Amino acid sequence: MLNTLREKEIERIERGEAVPPDDRLFDRSVFKPALAVVSEARLVQTIYAEYPTLKAALIELEGEKTEQTPQSLAAIWKTSENETAMLIEELIEIGFFQPRGGRDHWTYTKPLNA
Hints:
By secondary structure, this protein is mainly α. The protein folds into two domains: about 1-50; about 55-114, Winged helix-like DNA-binding domain superfamily/Winged helix DNA-binding domain (Arc Repressor Mutant, subunit A). The protein has five helices and three strands. It has helices at about 1-15, 30-50, 55-60, 70-75, 80-95, and strands spanning about 65-70, 100, 105-110. The chain has a three-stranded antiparallel beta sheet with strand order 1-3-2. The mean pLDDT is about 90.
């Protein structure tokens, strides 16, 4: 992350933008693009490489909302309730999904850039 932040900050300064105020190393504007680069690298180089059986399901989430319900995931993946539950559990185990809620009102959030 730090290397990517540094690269984005250098690009910003090379475009003629002002150096960060005070004693800050990075301008606030470089964090979001740096996070996108790091997230994409983690997805492709780590998750796709280590869990190739999940790649198709993850690709289908591209461009979808960050927060999903089991029902919305079943519709996206075109899977049964049981298949959807199994995929959700696998994605939680590998750290892709973060569960929220409780009881019968669970939702699952994915990384912003996935």
